[in-house]
């Protein structure tokens, strides 16, 4: 790893990450414009959610976190939190699947809908499958040999770890929050349960890292020692971030799911009341 020293520039320019963020943002905004040209409305809050997600990814992978993550484990952990627990949910709330379906036509739209309704598509939105995938990626990437491999191989970090983190998080949150097109959305109680249960492995991982009496990752021992920092303190700070902050963030997404459940019940009640009135009047 390239060690950061005080006085060095904190901002990282990664052309691959920058180009992808700009491309995805442009595609989303083009989709919104296509809908407008057809006289269809698209919520400004969804667009804002998407732009916020892109900004968060830029903060994680182009800003100080990316630079400091080559030296400090706490910054590396901060990247994980930003991507998996903030950027990914905001992308889901921006309803990119619904936007893609509405912005396309003909065979392209039909193919997307078929994929969503296919057996593979249904498995990928199963809350048990997505929960296990999320936990596997989260825990597995922090096993010492895996972490050391990623830290020592730029391609492994750029093309394996980072895509896995984002994809696992997107699949986890996709059926649980928001109202994007989902062929088989779990019941509201299951959504809340899945979000709540995610606190267990997240806090357990944070506790293990925080309470470990020895350093776990030799690469971070070398990098923090090189800049005069205490590697064990660095590791404890990373564990504290995962242990405490994840509970706060998870609670927010549980509140979002609870509000959506409440609004769904309100709509169902209103529909039932209208039917009853229509039957009485008829």
Give the gist of this structure.
The chain is mainly α and 282 residues long.
Overall outline: globular
The tally of helices reads 14
Main sheet overview: none
| Tally of domains | 1
Class computed from helices, strands and strand pairing: mainly alpha
The share of residues in extended strands comes to under 5%
- Overall number of strands: 0
Task: Determine the mean pLDDT.
Answer: 88
Assembly state (oligomeric): single chain
Rg of Cα set: 21 Å
Structure description:
The chain is an all-alpha fold. Helix 1 (15-37) runs antiparallel to helix 2, helix 9 (144-152) packs across helix 10 (154-173) and helix 12 (199-211) packs antiparallel against helix 14. It has one domain (15-177, 188-281). It contains 14 helices and no strands. The chain has helices at 15-37, 44-62, 64-68, 73-93, 96-103, 106-117, 119-124, 127-140, 144-152, 154-173, 188-197, 199-211, 218-226, 231-281. The mean pLDDT is 88. The N and C termini lie far apart (75 Å).
């Amino acid at each position: 790893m390239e060690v950061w020293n005080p006085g060095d520039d904190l901002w990282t320019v990664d052309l691959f990450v920058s180009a992808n963020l700009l491309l995805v943002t442009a595609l989303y905004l083009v989709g919104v414009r296509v809908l407008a040209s057809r006289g269809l409305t698209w919520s400004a809050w969804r667009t804002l959610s998407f732009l916020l997600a892109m900004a968060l990814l830029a903060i994680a992978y182009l800003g100080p976190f990316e630079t400091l993550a080559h030296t400090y484990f706490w910054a590396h952990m901060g990247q994980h939190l930003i991507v998996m627990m903030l950027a990914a949910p905001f992308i889901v709330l921006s309803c990119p699947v619904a936007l893609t379906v509405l912005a396309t036509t003909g065979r392209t739209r039909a193919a997307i809908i078929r994929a969503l309704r296919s057996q593979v598509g249904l498995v990928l939105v199963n809350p048990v499958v997505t929960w296990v995938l999320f936990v596997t990626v989260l825990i597995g990437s922090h096993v010492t040999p895996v972490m050391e491999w990623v830290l020592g191989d730029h391609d492994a970090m750029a093309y394996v770890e980072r895509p896995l983190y984002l994809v696992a998080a997107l699949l986890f949150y996709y059926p649980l929050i928001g109202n994007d097109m989902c062929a088989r959305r779990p019941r509201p109680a299951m959504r809340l349960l899945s979000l709540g249960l995610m606190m267990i492995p997240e806090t357990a991982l944070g506790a293990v890292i925080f309470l470990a009496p020895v350093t776990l990752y030799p690469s971070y021992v070398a990098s923090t020692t090189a800049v005069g920092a205490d590697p064990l303190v660095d590791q404890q700070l990373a564990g504290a971030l995962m242990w405490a902050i994840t509970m706060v963030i998870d609670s927010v997404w549980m509140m979002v799911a609870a509000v959506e459940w409440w609004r769904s019940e309100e709509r169902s009640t209103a529909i039932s009341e209208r039917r009853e009135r229509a039957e009485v009047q008829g």
